[in-house]
Amino acid sequence: MASANSLTASVQALTLQSTTQTSKFAGCFPSLNPMDIYREHIAEQLGKAADIDPELIFSRLAWTNTLDKGDLSLPVAALRIKKKPDELAAELASKFPESDLIHPPTAFGPHIQFFCKPGPLAKTVLGRVLTEKAAYGTNGNMGLKDPSDPSKGKKKIIIEFSSPNIAKPFHAGHLRSTIIGGFLANLFTVMGWDVIKMNYLGDWGKQYGLLANGFKYFGDEEALTKDPINHLFDVYVKVNRIVGEQEGPIKELKEQIKAKKEKGEDVATEEAELAKLVDASEDEKARRYFKSMEDGNPDALALWARFRDLSIAKYKQTYARLNIDFDVYSGESQVKAESMANAFKAMEKAGVTEESEGAVIADFTKHGAKKLGKAIIIRKDGTPLYLTRDIGAILERDEKYHFDKMIYVVAAQQDLHLAQLFKVTELMGHKDLASRCQHINFGMVHGMSTRKGTVKFLDDILRDVGDKMHEVMKKNETKYSQVENPEETADTLGITSVMVQDMTGKRINGYDFNLDAMTSFEGDTGPYLQYAHARLCSMARKSELNIDELSSADFSLLTERHAVDLIRLLASWPDVLINTAKTLEPVTVLSYLFRMTHMLSSSYDVLKVIGSEPELKKSRMALYAAARQVLHNGMRVLGLNPVERM
Ligand SMILES: NC(=[NH2+])NCCC[C@H](N)C(=O)O
């Protein structure tokens, strides 16, 4: 399983080996990243030939988006030499000495394009992929506090994601947060960070009172243990219906009182009646119940804790299907009153808060942040709010974990909330803490529902997509009969479909949840990606070669353009990961993987394995095995489970 924990092991093995082999350039790891061998080489050679600081050249060498632009490119304007860039590029290109590693470079406008010579590249890249396996592309040095002194340890990151609300549906926003957060956790893990995965549950508030009372009327012990999430939701819906029914008469009576008062009539009877209605209402009972929780009533807290524990146990099962396990189940309930009180004092002292109609508010417009408006910090009745808890929590986490970075993966609908949280933190005097925090947001998903109805629990969605994939698989009888565990494979393919659809665009773009589109084999979909992986696995089986011995193949036989381009693409995988650590976009990885699958599918006819001479067969199989490995590594970072047959 591609849990972040198993990824950690791959990273560590390689990092240890790389620290013994360092480069004179900062951030250059030739033993981890083949392209760094080339960057180092170009920087030194060009530096010497043209008398330019090699460090400057090294830091300006960029990767390319398409292979026709070279393997590395140097935008010469960045060298800050007073000459027309086009002329300078031509001049420097001509000065570049003959090299074993690089073809004579060409100037293309203001860029110099460098193309690697295929022979040595194939040897380095394929050799490494086949021996480093899951560790190829990882870079444990990126997460070190001090890359020149590993004994100082790793940087620590908290990634808070998923964070559903107990007893309410797990909606599309939580699904996206789960997918993106899981991906970020894997990404930072392969970059050598110490990652803490945190789930901040919506597990506190008046809705709990409602739920607890509702459970007295509609609860069923057996149903609760069997399927807590669905049962609690049922109870929640039923008791909410009563709340809805009671609202009408209360509202009516309030209007009557208002009208009578305007006419100057006596309303004593009506007011007494209203007080009675309100007092007996579920809403008021819920408020009282929650108050008893806040006051520490042991019975109320015990019931709440049971609901919470059962829900978490169930969530864990669902997360496991997505290859995710959390290190910490925190939640709104876990924020200490003391932390909120301390935060409140700090806010008061810093002049962030003020009184307004009995409540305490923060008016950001007075603190140079017009767009953030005003926010209530403490309600009129003295109770804290969602924002207040987040303020307490951010301080607690800072104290407890001493993190270098914290990411909140939350829908763009909460942009204002997180901006307010970070601003308050800064204004309270924790500017440094605020600067270590980042909101990773994302757009909305429309129309997420199952085929049978609109129930929006994650399990239902995953089951539905899995069923659909099962139908698709059954259509190919011969293949279907060879799949060992078709149900499990269908489940994996379904989950892949959902996740790939989610990661196809930039995070901020919303999309329509489209069951037919995501489960199709046409286009860049999850099933297509899995198919590409399964096909490479099948090729390895049919070749009857020993995959562990392929690194001894003669790579110089791989001379065709298709082979060379594929190797060049495999060479860039470590750079793709480094770039992803900057964009923090799953699509950066995903589009790389689809580029590879397209290249593979156009290679099969040209680079045949079966039927080729033994040596050629072996070297081509080595190429495909390396491609499979990188595909596998990329899918694992995305949180996908690559299948071997389908
Ligand atoms: N620290 C936070 N506020 N995280 C986001 C929590 C999301 C919240 N439970 C919701 O469903 O809307």
From TrEMBL:
Q: Where is the Arginyl tRNA synthetase N-terminal domain?
A: 36-116
Write down the EC number.
Answer: 6.1.1.19
GO molecular function, a single term: ATP binding
Top enzyme class: ligase
Keywords (alphabetical) are: Aminoacyl-tRNA synthetase, ATP-binding, Ligase, Nucleotide-binding, Protein biosynthesis
User: What do the Gene Ontology cellular component annotations say?
Assistant: mitochondrion
**A Gene Ontology biological process term:** mitochondrial translation
What is the reaction catalyzed?
tRNA(Arg) + L-arginine + ATP = L-arginyl-tRNA(Arg) + AMP + diphosphate
Q: Which family does it belong to?
A: Belongs to the class-I aminoacyl-tRNA synthetase family.
What name goes with this protein? Answer: arginine--tRNA ligase
